[in-house]
Amino acid sequence: MRVDCEVHAFRREDRRAVPVIDGALEQLEGAAHECAITGLVLVQPAFLSGDPTELFAQASQARLPVRLIPPLMQPLAPEVLEAWGRSGAVGLALTLEDPDPLAESLEAALQLGLHLEVSGGVEGRERLAELLLADGHRLVFRGFGLADSARDPSWDPRLERLLALAKSADVFVKLSGIGRVPDGWAQAAAGRMLDDLGPEQLIWGSEWPHVTTAHAYAPSYAQTLEWLEKLVPDEDARGQILGETSAALYGFRSATSSSAPA
Q: What CA–CA distance (Å, rounded) separates 225 from 241?
């Protein structure tokens, strides 16, 4: 199985950013099929706010196996999270900026086996991440786990702290952000992560269709996979990132899995 761990599904009329690319799930599945991607993880784009109604509506039309990452932006009752899980959610997207109001929801998520996908970088919040890990949460850091690409990965202390946090922990780092981060930086950062963490803790997300002005050049879906090939030139390592690691993290059973949660 080959899994894209972050795609964006939405109706064209809901889009409020350029470039205009159809985010209908049918379009996503067609592009994925052409690139031999057999499983998709739908992460709600930020412009749809905290209401996951559209995310679940798109997923209900899926023909490929899909898993969902709805946003956790406010406290939610355990019954709501349970319903999300029954509808295909395997994790929750959030930042670590102000988690205190979410404490009860995070506990409920832990009991339901939902992992946490963290955006905005971990720098300055390493202690909080350590506490979440100690409580038993599984953490996925989106966008290389850093808030920006302003420093050389060879001497960036933020990257050192992220790698130290991730070692021997239930942590995964998502290689994503084509168009937002310079290619040279991404290749250097991915190299460090491969050396320190290995493909067992790395996943990949195309973030396609891209929904911010930073992606104004609108790469094709195939180009996002070409980008991954540059980041991870070793075919075996890349195969594990796309296959075994991602399938296990998101609960895909096999290439013939249905779209229902495992």
A: 12
Residues in Cβ contact with 123 at an 8 Å cutoff, skipping those fewer than 6 apart: 146, 147, 158, 161, 162
Burial (0-12, 13-18, 19+ Cβ within 10 Å), 98: exposed
- Domains in the chain: ranges and CATH: 3-250 (3.20.20.140)
Which pair of tokens denotes residue 189?
Answer: 């950062």
At residue 36 the predicted structure's pLDDT band, cuts being 50, 70 and 90, is very high
Closest Cα partner for 135 from 165, 99, 111? 111
Per residue in 52-79, pLDDT tens?
Answer: 998 999 899 999 999 999 999 999 999 9
Closest by alpha carbon to 214, among 174, 162, 176, 158?
Answer: 176
Output the pTM of the full model: 0.91
Residue-wise pLDDT for 94-128, tens only, equals 999 888 999 999 999 999 999 999 999 999 899 99
Q: Is the peptide bond before 209 cis (omega within 30 degrees of 0)?
A: yes
